[in-house]
Amino acid sequence: MPKFKLDETDHKILDLLIDNTRIPFTDIAKKLEISAGTIHVRVKKMEEAGIITGSSLQVDYKKLGYAFIAYVGVFIFKTSQTQFVLERISEIPFVTVAHVTTGKFNIFCKIRARDTAHAKDVIYQIDDIEGVSRTETMISMEESINDKKRLLHSIFKEI
Amino acid sequence: MPKFKLDETDHKILDLLIDNTRIPFTDIAKKLEISAGTIHVRVKKMEEAGIITGSSLQVDYKKLGYAFIAYVGVFIFKTSQTQFVLERISEIPFVTVAHVTTGKFNIFCKIRARDTAHAKDVIYQIDDIEGVSRTETMISMEESINDKKRLLHSIFKEI
DNA sequence: GGTGAAAGCACCGAGTT
DNA sequence: AACTCGGTGCTTTCACC
Fold first, then answer.
1. What residues of chain A lie within 8 A of the CB of B104, using their CB?
2. Where are any strands of DSSP class E within chain A?
3. Distance between CA B154 and CA A16 in Å, rounded?
4. Distance from residue B26 (CA) to nucleotide D2 (C1'), in Å?
C-alpha cells in the first residue's frame, strides 16, 4: 500500500473540513494564508488519493423519531456460515453497521430504531436468519463523544 | 418535543445531500424540478429545526495507517462510578464512541488504532481507569455496510 | 507546489404572486 | 410556499513564478 504523504497544510485543511464540509475554500485560504486555488488543488489530490472518500450530512435521528440505539452480538452455529449471515444482517433495515469479530460474538452490529418495540422487530429479524443460534442485546442509554475531529488530531500528532 | 414535519420534497433533498454535501443546490433544483431558491429555504429550515446538524468529511483511516477497529466492553465495580468512568474513557485518544449500556457491559466503546500493539495501549488506558474491573475486547475482522443513505430511506418509508 | 486574476456559477435575500 | 432576479461571493482553471 503506497502511503500518501500528507503535510502540515493538508492536516490543517482536513481539520477545517472534517466537521464542516461547506466551509468556503476562500475562508480556508484566509486562515492558512495561502491561495484558494491551492486549497482546491490539495483537496482534489486528497480525493484522488482516496484519503477523502466523500462527505456526509449529519442528521439528528432523534428529531426524526429514531432515538433508540442498541448493539447486538450475534452467535452463529458454524463459523463457516458467518459470511452468509453477515450479508443477511446487512440487508436488514435499521441495522447501521455490522462487523465480523473475534471474541465473544461472531458478528456484532449496531441498530437504530424508533423505540423498544421497533428494536424488537429488528432483533427478531436477526434471530430468524438461518445459522444464527442466538443474540445478545446491549441497549445504549447514553452516548458520549463521537468526535471525528479529535480522532484526526490524535492521528496527526502521531504521523 | 415538537416534531418537525418533513414532506416528500425534504426527503428528496436530504437523500441527495446525505452522501454528498457539496452537490450544488442548482443541481438539486434541476433534479426535483423546483427552483434553487426553494432548495435553499428548505435546507435552511431543516438546519434551524435541528434536523440537519452539520456535515462531515469521510476520511479513509486505513489509508492513513489506522486500519484497526475494535469494540471494548467495560465492566465497572459499582454502577455509581459509571458517569466518572464514561468521562475518563471519552478523553482517551483513539476511543471514537462510548455508550452507557444495559446488558452484559456497563460501558461499551469503539476504538480505532494503527495495529494490535497500538490497540493494546488504548485498552490498557481503559483498564487503568479507577472503577474499571475488567474489559472484554472484540476485534473487527471485517466491516460490512455503514450506509447512512439506506437508514434514511428506511426511515422515510415509515414516516 | 504556489500564485493571482478572470470567467463562470452558486448562493441567498428581497420582492412578488 | 414557491418563484424570479440580481448583487455578492465562491469555485475552478490557467498562464506564470
1. 136, 138
2. 52-59, 68-76, 95-101, 107-113, 132-143
3. 32
4. 15
